[in-house]
Amino acid sequence: xxxxxxxxxxxxxxxxxxxxxxxxxxxxxxxxxxxxxxxxxxxxxxxxxxxxxxxxxxxxxxxxxxxxxxxxxxxxxxxxxxxxxxxxxxxxxxxxxxxxxxxxxxxxxxxxxxxxxxxxxxxxxxxxxxxxxxxxxxxxxxxxxxxxxxxxxxxxxxxxxxxxxxxxxxxxxxxxxxxxxxxxxxxxxxxxxxxxxxxxxxxxxxxxxxxxxxxxxxxxxxxxxxxxxxxxxxxxxxxxxxx
Length: 243
Prior knowledge:
Layout: E1 5-10, E2 13-18, H1 29-43, E3 51-56, H2 67-71, H3 81-90, E4 96-100, E5 103-105, H4 107-113, E6 117-121, E7 125-127, H5 130-133, H6 141-149, H7 151-160, E8 164-165, H8 166-171, E9 177-179, H9 184-196, H10 200-213, H11 218-228, H12 236-241
Parallel strand pairs: 2-3, 3-4, 4-6, 5-7, 6-9
Antiparallel strand pairs: 1-2, 7-8
């Protein structure tokens, strides 16, 4: 394991930090290899890790796909490695919070919206710049962004490439909250602590049921919930007694 992605743990919270601040945390294939390895490890640690925070070192979350690495011939292990990594994040048992400051463009926006929640700072800038470079989505932009903010707003972002601020991201449903830059990580950790204070059994069930149900018509989703809800946590009686 290299140092392009750093992991720290804090009482059930895993914090993953994209660690290329001099390159605005551009998403090189090698960074994705490390990111995938971390998430594969966390996926198998659902009893030790209850929530994940994904953030970027320095002044940006990430400027997006690393075009210089592409020009230099750096490649991922397989054709759809990055897209499959985002699916791994989306399907991770634990909730994942993107903590976003500065740039969050294109590939990094796709990365951020694969997470369950998004906390932005005042400096956050979100954009889809595929059109600027004559590229088309491959990591999920055309599917996740409309589901997050609705098709009319998603098409506007995708067609125009316009920049959305942190506050605007909250207004359109892209982000949960917008806070001051110097409060971003503390507020993100505060939310993560609220999450891990609840039953991890329930958290895993909630994420699974919501994600699966979103792909079904309402009637089928209701049946899916009834058929697949795993039932109460073993701690339920203790929690009720302590209420």
